[in-house]
Amino acid sequence: MTEIKTQEQKPPYGIIAILFIGAFVAILNETFLNVALPSIMEEFQVKPAVVQWLATGYMLVNGILIPASAFFIQRFTNRSIFIAAMSLFTIGTLLASISPTFGILLTARMIQASGSAIMMPLLMNVMLVAFPIEKRGQVMGFFGLVMIVAPALGPTLSGVIVEHFSWRMLFNIVLPFSIFSLVYAIFRLKNFTPQNKIKLDVLSIILSSIGFGGLLYGFSSAGDLGWNDPLVYGTIIAGVIGLVWLILRQFKLEEPLLEFRVFKYPMFALSSAISVTISLALFSGMILVPIYLQTVRPFSPTEAGLLMLPGAIIMGIMSPISGRLFDKHGARGLAIIGLTIVIVATFFFSKLSLTTPYLLVALMFSIRTFGMSLVNMPVMTNGLNQLPMKDYPHGTAVNNTLSQVSGAIGSALLVTVMNKRMEFRLEEMANEPVDMSLIDPNSSVDVPTQIGNIAMLNGINFSFLVSAIILIVALILAFFIKRVPVGKPVSETAVAPDETSKIEEK
């Protein structure tokens, strides 16, 4: 009865609004720095493998802390969690903007990440608690603005800023928003989510750090170091062992760090499988398209960033609309239509050439983004709807962790596919006459570099073809989606078959 009562109260729109702002700047910051990495390399005189840690390290901290978010959300109030997280994020942002050395900048990024890691799980949990099942689609559609639009806007904004200002301006722009969110939260944010005085299992935290941290680091480093590097396969093996041990331990604990029993709810398990499959394929687009534009083609960082802007705008418009469509029609039809569009657009990217018009690439990227807007939030919300309220923190933590890990794995795998295909094509071209029709004699780029670009284009196309095949798997899974019944209390709709007898006894 407590679950029904909580959801019949007026939703705390003020709380959700400030959480939205905090989460938006935190997630925006995740991709904000990518375009600025060359400038940072030049200023601090560091190598690509070193500067990459500004992105990899940020993702690593997120991967380690997100699994613990279920504990924090249950143990502490939403007010105390948000203020602590936003304080860390603000301190990290300030430190990054004034950092005199690369080491301090990297430390600042880690501090930022420790604050941002909790933002998405906290926001998602508050929305699940605040809104009844029949209204969640619309509000989760707005949640899609944060989850998808913020990372998409990052490269666009940073490309324009870095071309005209110092990379430090990226942090100076974010800082006022984070300070505003923090000050507003201190004076106006109220407690909404229930507390449960659970104990923290230290060994689970250690195993989670080894498991998810090892996987994230290993797969993220594979693109630079290669799969044969002991550091890569060693950390992946350690991550797998840590993850298996973590899962086995959770089943023995009365108060698990992560409740893996949420996978016994069929729609949640199915939505997680679809989301993981999509993340494996789609995150690569954020990497491969900029490589194509800035390396294979002679476009500037600003032009590469602006190409993604229409897609971000479309996502912003469509996320609330797809939420309303989900409330009315469920996730199955939306997922099937959306994935079909994404697969067609991804297949187009496997046919890129040295002369593909810029506007055509922008159009297809926008169409691909439109398809994504019909899939992500409806599928995730449908799965979370089947969980009982007590498992919301675990469901959101599992979803966000899987998104981070599968995105890192997918990006690493597809970049590796691109590199291997590129090497194979270079070997082929070395043993056959050069097709001079592909060489531009008027280009300022020398012939060997043009040949390398042709091989890289072949690798990019092949990677997108692999992405399309992976997405077909997600499309097949989407046909098995069933809508969670609307109009019943969550406690009734979210009962797993093996728990029915327990409820009847009570």
UniProtKB/TrEMBL annotation:
Keywords: Cell membrane, Membrane, Transmembrane, Transmembrane helix, Transport. Residues 15-486 form the Major facilitator superfamily (MFS) profile domain. It is found in: Cell membrane. GO terms for molecular function: transmembrane transporter activity. It is a multi-pass membrane protein. CDD domains: MFS_LmrB_MDR_like. The keyword Transport applies. Gene3D superfamilies: MFS general substrate transporter like domains (1.20.1250.20), Multidrug resistance protein D (1.20.1720.10). PROSITE patterns: MFS. GO terms for cellular component: plasma membrane. The chain crosses the membrane at residues 12-33, 53-73, 80-98, 110-130, 142-161, 167-187, 199-219, 231-248, 268-292, 304-321, 333-352, 358-376, 462-481. InterPro entries: EmrB-like, MFS, MFS_dom, MFS_trans_sf. Signal peptide: none annotated. Belongs to the major facilitator superfamily. EmrB family. This is MFS transporter. It comes from Ornithinibacillus halotolerans.
